[in-house]
Structure prediction request, 352 residues.
Amino acid sequence: MKLKRFLLRYYPPGIILEYEQQNVLKTKSIDLLDLKPNTNVGEVVEEIAKKEPLITNSRKEQVAQLITRLQQKISQPDDRYFYLFKVLRAHILPLTNVGFNKSGSCFITGSYDRTCKVWDTASGEELHTLDGHRNVVYAIGFNNPYGDKIATGSFDKTCKLWSTDSGKCFHTFKGHNSEIVCLSFDPQSTILATGSMDNTAKLWDIETGRELSTLSGHSAEIISLGFNTKGDQIITGSFDHTVSVWDVNSGQRIHSLIGHKAEISSAQFNWDCSMIITGSMDRTCKVWDAGSGHCIGVLVGHEDEVLDVVFDYTGQYIATASADCTARIYNAFTHELITKLEGHQGEISKVN
Prediction:
C-alpha cells in the first residue's frame, strides 16, 4: 500500500487517507469523534500511528498539522443568528418534504402536485422541475456527500433517479406494490434503498437501475430506513412495532429489534455503527447495541408520540422530536435527559 494524500473532514471530524493498493486507488477514514480543542495532539498522533500502518514516522508531522486544523475548527464559536431569509411559493399544492445537498448550495422540495423542484439556496431561483410521477412525490433526497443525483419516491409506487445538474431522469425503479414513503442512498452512492407501504424495502443498483434485493419480513408498512456509515448494513422501521437490521450484500435479516409497543416513527445508526436509536408512537425511544441487537436503554419523558430521533455526529447525544410540542436532548450512554426544548405551539415532526 502506498499513501497518496490526506483529505481533511471537518464534519464529523476525521482524516481521510487516499492510498494505492495493487494499482487501485482506495480510501479509508480515521474518525476523531472525541477530539476536543484541548486534546493532546501528540498523543492522538501516536495512537493513530500504532493502529494505522500507512502513518509512518515521516507522516506524523503532517497528521499533527491536520489535527490542529480540526481543533481550530471545533473551537470556533457557534453563535449564528437565524432569521427568515426567503419565502418561496412555487408548488400549487402542499409540500411533503425538503432536503439540502451537503454544501447547502441548493435544496429540493417534494409536493402533492406530483413534482420535485430544485432550488438555488442563495438566490431562491428555481433550477429544475422534476416532472414525471403520476401521484404525490413523498420521499426525496440527494446522494450526499456527492450531491450530483436526486431520488424521488412517489405514491405512484415508483422511484426515479435524476441528474441534479440537468434535471434528466436516469432511471425509473418499478417493483413496489404500494406507495413509496422513504428512501436512502448508501454512503458510496452505488445503492438506493426504498421503503414502501407494501411492507417491503428494495435495494437498487444506481448505475444500471437493476433491483438488487427485496427485504421482506415486516408485517406492516415500512416508514423509515437508513444505511450505516460503512454501507454494509441497513435498518428498516415499521408500523409492526419492530426495526430490522439487514445485511446489504446478502439481503438477509441480521436482527429484529423488538420491544416497542406501538408503530416505529424513526430509526438511525450512530456514526461508528455501534448503536441504533429508534423512536416510536409509544412515546419512548430505545437505544440498541447494533452488534447484538439487544436493547441497552430506554429514553422516557415525552407525553405524546415520538416522531423523529437523531444522533449527533459523535454518537454521544440523542435528540428527539415529539407531538407533545417539545424536543429533548439525551445522553446516549447514560440515557439521562440533558435538556428539554420548549416553545413550539404544535407537534415537532423533524429534528436534525
Remarks:
- The radius of gyration is 21 Å.
